[in-house]
Amino acid sequence: MSDVKEAITQAHQEEWARVVAALTRRFGDLDIAEEAAAEAFATAVQRWPADGVPPNPGAWLTTTATRKAIDRLRRENKREDKHKEAHLAYDTTPPEPVGVIDDDRLRLIFTCCHPALAMPARLALTLRMLGGLTVPEIARAFLVQETTMEQRITRAKAKIKAARIPYRMPSADDLPTRVSGVLAVLYLLYNEGYLATGPGTDPIRHDLTTEAIRLTRQIRTLLPQDGEVTGLLALMLLIEARRPTRITADGELITLDQQDRHAWDPELIAEGHRLVRERLATGIAPGRYQILAAINAVHTSARDILATDWSQILALYDQLTHLDPSPIIALNRAIAVAELDGPEVALAIIDRLEPSLAGYHAYHATRADLLRRLGRDHEARTAYDQAIDLAGNTAQTASLTRRRDQLQ
């Protein structure tokens, strides 16, 4: 039974986006695609324990979801005419192999990221439709209530239907202007896999990080000269290179200073560094993702934490602040300040961010670490408690709890 549960979990991680994308292509309706996919997975939960896991879970789920969608259309009588009904019910076109619908997923993400939608709606809808995240998981990623997120996703799907937003790739002329919104979504999709927010999920969701990297590679093929596409790919690769060293055998998050750098993936690091150098050689002012990639290139170039060039990292954060003066960038910049000017200077910077980041676990975790370094253990314990309450990632919670319990 446990093997079947694991197979269903794995199938959801690996096949959700493929199934939703295939159904969206066929039926042209995100609601139908999402609900039919969910019903197919619910059917798998019921039938696979008795019938066994099918040889090709993705094909089984796609076929089952297609039947569910057709049944729904019949019940709701939404087909335009009998010809369409016959086509849907008796279409004998051989189904595409499940692994050959990559373009469908790329079309799906451009549909979800259409400029007619507000950016928060684009992000939320893509995480639901492409990443398969639950509404609670997405709500935690956005630091909003679940009901708010549910309404946001529902309104986004309704707008796509009402505005007749097509399920297709943008034209070559429109592609450059459309890509920035897609990159923002892919970055958030990667971050969710890198540090999953769901308490009941794996702390690192390799399926999401892999999918984000795959889609970013495809977009770079379409726009090889776009610096931010290249920058985002480099950033993902340099972060992904550290993945094998980020979780202990006991499921605790390992911070950057404690990671075994010999176990980092040298091929991913080499590719990421090459992409960063490629953009630097152009002489064109870098964008946000290129600067973030450069920061990670500095980290992955150092043989250990003591050899890190914090001056260069701080200079890059100063450059980034001009492009993105957000509180989270200021928080990360303060970490570099702590290494150069000491924790007291950094703490003064961070305390000014409290109104904006009070609900953000990393704010309290960073503050707790600085207070600990200053010997202010009682205040550090309080800050750790706040971070633990806000952290949704199990590995992160375990790490924070250990650090808190080590205080006097």
From TrEMBL:
InterPro entries reported in the protein's UniProt record: DUF6596, RNA_pol_sigma70_r2, RNA_pol_sigma70_r4_t2, RNA_pol_sigma_r2, RNA_pol_sigma_r3/r4-like, TPR-like_helical_dom_sf, WH-like_DNA-bd_sf
Classification via Pfam families: DUF6596 (PF20239), Sigma70_r2 (PF04542), Sigma70_r4_2 (PF08281)
The keyword Cell membrane belongs to this UniProt entry's keyword annotation: no
Coiled coil: none
DUF6596 domain residues: 178-278
Sequence ranges assigned to domain RNA polymerase sigma factor 70 region 4 type in this UniProt record: 110-160
Signal peptide: none
Keywords assigned: Sigma factor, Transcription, Transcription regulation
Domain RNA polymerase sigma-70 region: from-to ranges: 18-78
Family: Belongs to the sigma-70 factor family. ECF subfamily.
Name the UniProt record assigns to this protein: Sigma factor-like helix-turn-helix DNA-binding protein
Lineage of source species: Bacteria, Bacillati, Actinomycetota, Actinomycetes, Streptosporangiales
